[in-house]
Amino acid sequence: MTHRRLFPPQTAGREPGPGLADCRPGYFDLPARILAAAGLAVDGAVHAYLAGHYALTAPGISIGTWFRTEAVVAGLAALLVIVLRRLVSDVLGWLTAAAGLVGLIVYQFAGLYEASPFVDLNELLWTAERTMSLPGQGLALVCLTPLLLGHLHRAVGRTA
Q1: Distance between CA 49 and CA 52 in Å, rounded?
Q2: What does the pLDDT read at residue 55?
Q3: Which has the least CB within 10 A, 65, 85, 126, 143?
């Protein structure tokens, strides 16, 4: 009966490559993806709901059109984060959440609503829908950031 070694013998002066545990996603991967997709789904649902209200106030390309676009992109990103599980889907989800979050905060607190071409967004009140969209986008960012860093870590480990 011959015994086969599980690992090749190390040669002198050579550093061992990354182990199996270093190259695969961790236990955090699936829960982070589920929470990120939930946050993106909330963001998409809120924008889809609000799109109908804002589309009634202006003809042509209105803020309702932008909200519908955000809803579609957020829904697609949520689906891809769960199904595809690749760097591209994680980047799309992260950028969607970041753009929505930064846009909402900057628009509200930097006073851009005063100079906005979208008259229908010139409101100072935080509605219930806005307060639901904000944590959804934040949750997606918090969950997708470690996943993106993991992709980067694995890519650097492969090239080293």
Answers
A1: 6
A2: 65
A3: 126
- The token pair at 12 is 């002198």
Pair 11, 52: CB distance under 8 Å: no
Q: CB of 140 within 8 A of CB of 97?
A: yes
d(CA 123, CA 114): 9
User: What is the structure's pLDDT at 25?
Assistant: 61
Four-CA torsion 98, 99, 100, 106, nearest 10 degrees: 100
What is the predicted pLDDT for the residue at 66? 84
- Distance (Å, rounded) from C-alpha 98 to C-alpha 18? 32
pTM above 0.90, yes or no: no
Amino acid letter for position 39: G
Q: Where are the domains of the chain?
A: 27-159
Burial status of residue 158 (CB atoms within 10 A of its CB: 0-12, 13-18, 19 or more): exposed
Question: Is-contact 132 46, C-beta < 8 A?
Answer: yes
Q: Tell me which amino acid residue 50 is.
A: L
Q: What is the pLDDT of residue 126?
A: 65
